[in-house]
Design a protein that fits this description.
Length: 732
């Protein structure tokens, strides 16, 4: 037995591969012998305390080691039903996540601690059940799809060290955990139907159950809205299917399908004077967006004895993003309409596999190791079309040339990415102390081959690759009554994208002279969290993040050509805290009634520390508000009622890294340097009138605040004014 223990420790220190772990598990099984029984009394891990797990992830959560990493979770059963994909309600208890809001559901915009533009969430990894939701995980990491909240059981947020768990992007990881089938009966169902202002109608319907060794879940959803502005109407529909099979107590197989289709108008962007004068103005009545996504996933989890678990996910999918756009109309009587539109089509065909093993050894120790492989083909095309209301499927073969036909192709790029990683982590426990070393090796290849690019004499035909090693170290200790300290030092990275190698916009040099490297991130975080009293949870930490090799544009001196160079460095430091107190659980920890008050705040100080432009040093990176605060209360009784009020307040922030305004003061296109501070409150409630029948109601933006948080060089996009809904759900 001592020999076996020594072997397992050596295995952990060497970060064994999957094959080695499996072989060891088999050797251990073969060596099993009957010994005299001994009664062992082991200390219960802090990880297993129920109150703590209402707010953070387990320390070893399946094949993931999260101890010493700052995590947060929101269990959707603990809050009122989230309607119309209201992200303020969904993330009300998620500290630090900045949501740059827009009125339609065609894009989703997150950022964290001032790292990167929130546009399409390019600097945040967003997953569903551990599988990336981005169009192209490496080459085009943008977020055009989110699962409906009705399909989600839990939202997880993982900060420093997230790159060591899931790879690309600086962090955090936002992971949506899907609802599991009903395990208590062979057949059950749920139907939800709501209406609201701006022409909102939404329906969601689900059936699920468990029969012998099989379980299943099928849902379908449909949502339509006219929007607040002209040309802001949208239709969202989709379906999910899950079929699971458990051949024995040791194994589980599952097949999952997720389908999503969106079509919506894009009313356009405008300058600050137009926002002040007429926030509902729509300068682009002809613009439209379409998004289709279909993903099929096969997964397996296999237990080898009590300690070793091997989990594998294989997925393949298709996503298409199409836009129709043209120049915006000025806010004047009888404006002149543009003569043509640009039709753009991004297609992504992707396949990936993620395989991980976890081996629980000794007293609370655990080793995880695994690999990831991913491939995507992503053709990108643009056409010029004389019809401002052209169909998304219009296609033209003739290349656009001066004096040629108006209906023509402007751009044709064949693009692909290959990505792979191997990784391992181990948590060592020494009494109340724990130590977690981590390592991950990443490899990306990005390939672009242009056949048409109007106005460019030299076409892009290049492939670039990068290998990035990542390391991390975490440690902490349990103290007092259910308290824990955590310290984490971790590396992360942001891959080189398609647009960094061969951009369809601007005049990026197509030659090898344009050769940026990935952006590197080093994060430090130290904090403490716990549940020292019944009903109380707290988490407080300080952080310091260095972002090195940010990609900046630099003129080449040849015409208007530019190259991307790694000359930008930023530093992000601050404090993040969260507290939740349940007054009723404080009196009775087993109660089914809860009245909790919560608050969380992120305080941020971010600065440029290096740049090709010396005047940039010392300036604040764009979208880095000095504070982001949320607070609210939730009152609920299991299967009787749920009611919540939440408030989010965001400090003013710069819209550009230059900290300068856009345009000339007095012009309709002018945009101030800073996005104004704003505070928005929401209310939502569920009430059971019968055990199966529930009434739903809510009001978003209670004070009807006029605000915006989404800014581009060509304009701002306003947030939604007051909206409300009512409806019902029925369970059977």
């Amino acid at each position: 037995m001592k020999t076996a223990a020594a072997s397992r420790a050596a295995c952990a220190l060497g970060f064994v591969c999957l094959a080695g772990a499996s072989a060891f598990a088999q050797d251990r099984k073969d060596a099993t012998q009957t010994l005299e029984s001994v009664n062992v009394r082991e200390r219960r891990l802090q990880d297993d305390t129920r109150p703590k797990l209402e707010h953070i992830m387990k320390e070893v959560d399946g094949p993931l080691i999260t101890v010493t990493k700052k995590t947060s979770i929101t269990k959707l059963d603990n809050i009122p039903t989230v309607i119309d994909n209201n992200l303020r309600n969904l993330f009300a208890q998620t500290p630090g996540l900045f949501v740059s809001e827009q009125q339609t559901a065609g894009q989703f915009n997150f950022s964290y601690r001032g790292i990167g533009n929130p546009q399409e969430s390019e600097f945040v990894a967003v997953l569903q059940d551990g599988i990336p939701l981005e169009g192209d995980w490496i080459g085009f990491p943008t977020l055009y799809v989110l699962p409906p909240p009705q399909t989600i059981a839990q939202v997880q947020e993982i900060r420093g060290g997230s790159s060591l768990l899931y790879g690309p992007e600086p962090g955090p990881v936002i992971n949506f955990v899907s609802r599991a089938p009903d395990a208590t009966r062979p057949f059950g169902g749920y139907s939800e139907n709501v209406i609201g202002n701006n022409g909102l109608f939404a329906t969601f319907n689900r059936i699920s159950g468990t029969v012998d060794q099989w379980d299943y879940l099928l849902d379908a959803h449909y949502r339509t809205s006219d929007g607040q502005r002209d040309n802001a109407g949208s239709i969202l529909k989709g379906a999910d299917l899950h079929v699971g099979y458990r051949p024995d107590d040791a194994g589980y197989w599952a097949l999952d399908f997720h389908g999503y289709e969106f079509a919506g108008g894009d009313p356009g962007k405008y300058g600050y004077p137009v926002f002040q004068r007429d926030p509902d103005y729509a300068p682009t009545p002809y613009n439209k967006d379409w998004v289709d996504r279909y993903v099929l996933e096969l997964s397996n989890q296999q237990h080898f004895g009590d300690d070793l678990v091997w989990s594998t996910k294989f997925w393949s999918g298709y996503q298409n993003q199409a836009t129709r756009s043209a120049a915006g109309l000025p806010d004047v009587p009888a404006p002149a309409y543009p003569s043509s539109a640009t039709l753009q089509d991004d297609t992504f065909r992707f396949t990936g596999v993620d395989s991980r093993v976890v081996d629980h050894w000794g007293r609370g120790n655990a080793l995880t190791a695994g690999f990831v492989w991913y491939h995507s083909d992503a053709p990108f095309r643009q056409w010029n079309d004389a019809n401002l209301y052209t169909n998304r499927n219009d296609r033209f073969d003739a290349a656009c040339v001066t004096g040629g036909p108006a209906n023509c192709i402007k751009l044709n790029q064949n693009r692909s990415t290959d990505y792979g990683a191997v990784f391992a982590e181990n948590v060592f426990r020494f009494g109340r102390w724990h130590l977690v070393p981590s390592v991950r090796l990443e490899r990306e290849t990005v390939d672009i081959d242009e056949s048409v690019h109007t106005g460019h004499a030299v076409l892009v035909d290049r492939a670039v690759d990068h290998t990035v090693p990542l390391f991390g170290l975490g440690f902490g200790n349990d103290f007092g009554r259910s308290n824990e300290t955590y310290v984490n030092v971790s590396q992360g990275w942001r891959p080189v994208r398609y647009f960094d190698v061969g951009s369809p916009f601007g005049n990026l040099d197509p030659s090898p002279a344009n050769d940026p490297s990935p952006t590197h991130v080093l994060s430090f975080e130290a904090g403490v969290h716990g549940t020292p009293l019944p009903g109380l949870f707290y988490d407080a930490s300080v952080f310091w993040i260095n972002v090195k090799d940010r990609i900046e544009s630099q003129p080449t001196g040849v015409g208007n050509n530019t190259i991307d160079v790694n000359t930008g460095d930023t530093r992000h430091r601050g404090f993040e805290g969260q507290i939740d107190y349940d007054f009723l659980a404080a009196r009775d920890p087993q109660t089914t009634r809860h009245f909790s008050v919560f608050a969380n705040v992120s305080l941020l100080n971010a600065r440029f520390t290096d740049s090709r432009n010396p005047s940039q040093v010392g300036k604040t990176p764009a979208f880095s508000p000095h504070y982001l605060a949320r607070a609210g209360l939730v009152w609920r009784e299991d299967r009787r009622f749920k009611a919540a009020v939440s408030v989010v307040s965001v400090a003013s922030q710069y819209a550009l890294d230059s900290n300068n305004p856009i345009g000339s003061a007095g012009a309709d296109s002018f945009i101030p340097a800073q996005v104004p501070q704003y505070t928005v409150a929401d209310f939502s409630a569920d009430y059971w009138v019968l055990p199966q029948l529930r009434l739903l109601a809510g009001i978003s933006n209670l004070a009807d605040r006029k605000y915006y948080s989404r800014v581009f060089q060509n304009g701002i996009e306003p947030g939604l004014r007051r909206t409300y809904y009512g409806g019902f759900s029925y369970e059977f």
